[in-house]
Every structure is written in C-alpha cells, then in structure tokens.
C-alpha cells in the first residue's frame, strides 16, 4: 500500500481548489474596495447582512467550542476557539456603531436569500453528530476567507477608501491572521487523524463554505444595481 501523507491537508486543498478559493478571497466586491471604486450602497448592504450573519455565527462558534472541549486532544484548541468567540462580542458592538454611522437600520434588515442559505448551513453544522474535525474545518474556512479578502485591501498599493479602513483592519490585520493560522494548525492536526470518510466530509464542507462566501459577496454587490 502506498502511504498517504495527510499532513498539511489545508495547503493541499487550497492548491487543489485554487479557482474557487481565489473566487472567494479575491471577489470583485473586495477588489472594488481595494481599488477604491466601491459603491457605498454595496458596502451598506454588506454591513446589514453581515450583522445578521455574525449573530448566527456566535452560536456556531460556541458549538465548535463545545466540541473542542469534549474531543480535542490538545487543550490549547479550546483557548484558540474561545478567543475567536470572545472577539465576536466586540464585533457585534462594532457592527452596531458602524451601522449607525452609515444610517443602516439593523432592526429592519430583510435577510437576503444567500445569507439565509449560509445561516441554514451554519445551523446544520451545529448538530451534535457533526464531527469536531469537520466543524473546525468550517470555522477555519469562514474566518480565513475574510482574513485573506480584507488583507488585500490593506496592501501597500491599495486605494481603499479611508471610511472603510476600519472594517478592513478588523479582519485583514496581522492579529486576525495569527488567529487563522492557529486554526489552520488545529485543522491540519485533526485531519491527520481523521478517517477517510471524515476527510471527505471536511473537504466538501470547505468547498461549500467557499461557494457560500462567493454568494454572500455577490449579494452584497447586487446592491449597486
Ligand atoms: C459572511 C462572513 N464570513 C466570514 C466572516 C468572518 N467571521 C466573523 O466575523 C463574516 N463576518 N461574514
């Protein structure tokens, strides 16, 4: 039998699915922030919808934390995930402040279909029977798409409008990048020990996150039309 090396699975999956991955991490919506051509109505649409998403993301992250506390064979997993969960409290406050600044009434945001699909997907991942390796892969993918995307808007030659810099720094900065790398190490370690079936489930979950993120960006951009 040929031994299959499973370590560094994430790097392999990113290379294998590079078109979809790049579609999610360099979406035209992000590129329009980066080159300064963004229509602010798109940003406002994204803001209102993402607030709804993040509220749903809290119980999802809590469910990953619960699975980490039961299943992780490294006790530092729990600390990494807890730090992610804790930062969501500040994030929700930021959304409220930002929404007030842009006159986006958060109380009557109509949840868009793409957002609804994404939230439903998160709900399906909260079921207790879903393996820790699979859900932590989802958490890594969700966070990393935002990290990579917004880091493009902070690159030296970017022309990001100053009003949007704060949003870009929230996810694009080095600190959040560090968090994503910690998650990636956790995922790689879990996948090394995962069964073939779990590996397939985790890869499918990764791809589904990329698709849902692309649809989320598409939805935000439709606001300009
Ligand atoms: C649609 C989407 N994906 C990922 C993130 C980043 N995670 C938490 O903030 C987000 N806010 N929204």
Automatic annotation (TrEMBL):
Substrate binds at residues 50, 91, 143. Pathway: Cofactor biosynthesis; thiamine diphosphate biosynthesis. The keyword NADP does not apply. Its EC number is 3.5.99.2. SUPFAM superfamilies: Heme oxygenase-like (SSF48613). The keyword Disulfide bond applies. One of its GO terms (molecular function) is thiaminase activity. Keywords: Disulfide bond, Hydrolase, Thiamine biosynthesis. It catalyses: N-formyl-4-amino-5-aminomethyl-2-methylpyrimidine + H2O = 4-amino-5-aminomethyl-2-methylpyrimidine + formate; 4-amino-5-aminomethyl-2-methylpyrimidine + H2O = 4-amino-5-hydroxymethyl-2-methylpyrimidine + NH4(+). Pfam families: TENA_THI-4. Belongs to the thiaminase-2 family. This is aminopyrimidine aminohydrolase. It comes from Salix brachista. The lineage of its organism: Eukaryota, Viridiplantae, Streptophyta, Embryophyta, Tracheophyta.
């Amino acid at each position: 039998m040929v031994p299959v090396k499973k370590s560094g699975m994430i790097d392999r999956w990113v290379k294998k699915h590079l078109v979809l991955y790049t579609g999610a991490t360099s979406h035209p919506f992000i590129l329009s922030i980066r080159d300064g051509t963004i229509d602010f109505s798109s940003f406002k649409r994204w803001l209102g919808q993402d607030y709804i998403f993040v509220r749903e993301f809290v119980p999802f992250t809590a469910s990953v934390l619960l699975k980490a506390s039961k299943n992780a064979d490294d006790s530092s997993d729990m600390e990494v995930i807890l730090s992610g969960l804790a930062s969501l409290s500040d994030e929700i406050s930021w959304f409220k402040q930002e929404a007030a600044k842009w006159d986006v009434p958060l109380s009557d945001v109509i949840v868009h279909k793409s957002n609804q699909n994404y939230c439903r997907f998160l709900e399906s991942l909260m079921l207790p029977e879903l393996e820790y390796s699979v859900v932590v892969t989802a958490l890594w993918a969700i966070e990393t798409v935002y990290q990579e995307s917004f880091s493009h808007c902070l690159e030296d030659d970017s022309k990001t409008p100053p009003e949007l810099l704060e949003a870009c720094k929230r996810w694009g900065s080095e600190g959040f990048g560090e968090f994503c790398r910690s998650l990636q190490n956790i995922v790689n370690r879990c996948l090394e020990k995962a069964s073939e079936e779990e590996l397939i489930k985790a890869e499918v979950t990764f791809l589904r996150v990329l698709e849902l993120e692309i649809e989320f960006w598409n939805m935000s951009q439709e606001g300009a039309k």
